[in-house]
Specification:
The protein has nine helices and no strands. The protein is mainly alpha-helical and about 180 residues long. This is Secreted protein.
Length: about 180
């Protein structure tokens, strides 16, 4: 098969365009750090929102990060209509992420942490028990999926601090945390 110069130019264009689009979406380790900053920095929230929204091939984890960013947009919005709109979007997006990878401890943690922090009267706390139970199950199995040791430590500390665990679960979590150190 003979290829012409325009074919290689076209192939090069497609490959570089694809990598340029992917360059807008950082790796999970970078996104995790950016999310912490985005809690207080609206401009970073907006740029993450744009990058994640425009990503055409979202993995369940990237979908989850988009849901977290939508919740952060709700936090930063001053208009009550947009607060509720972004929370609704976040809830739907996180549901999609969980459906795409139900045993991913990081996805479950992200949804749990958002639902834990949203005021209960808003009705966005439907998955707290199921997410807590799934995270405990995955921690007991030492099945952390994409989460590295620092993320696992954060998850365990958050679960303990949330006071949403049973006394037995809390005791087990303390033991697991001690074993990680």
């Amino acid at each position: 098969m003979k290829f012409s110069c325009p074919f290689f130019a076209f192939l090069f264009f497609i490959l570089t365009t694809t990598s340029i689009c992917r360059a807008d979406v950082p790796e999970p380790q970078v996104i995790r750090k950016q999310l912490l900053v985005a809690l207080e920095k609206r401009s970073l929230t907006d740029s993450l929102y744009k990058a994640l929204t425009n990503e055409p091939n979202k993995t369940p984890l990237l979908t989850c990060y988009l849901g977290v960013v939508q919740a952060l947009k709700a936090k930063h919005a001053w208009n009550p209509y947009f607060k509720v709109k972004y929370l609704n979007d976040a809830e739907k997006t996180l549901k999609t992420a969980v459906a795409g990878q139900p045993d991913n401890i990081e996805i479950r943690f992200m949804r749990f942490s958002i639902e834990h922090n949203v005021p209960g009267f808003l009705g966005y706390t439907k998955h707290l028990v199921a997410d807590r139970e799934e995270m405990i199950k995955q921690l007991n199995r030492k099945h952390y999926t994409t989460a590295d040791e620092s993320v696992v430590r954060t998850i365990i500390k958050f679960l303990i601090d949330s006071k949403r665990c049973t006394p037995h679960e809390t005791e087990t979590l303390h033991k697991q945390l001690a074993a990680l150190k």
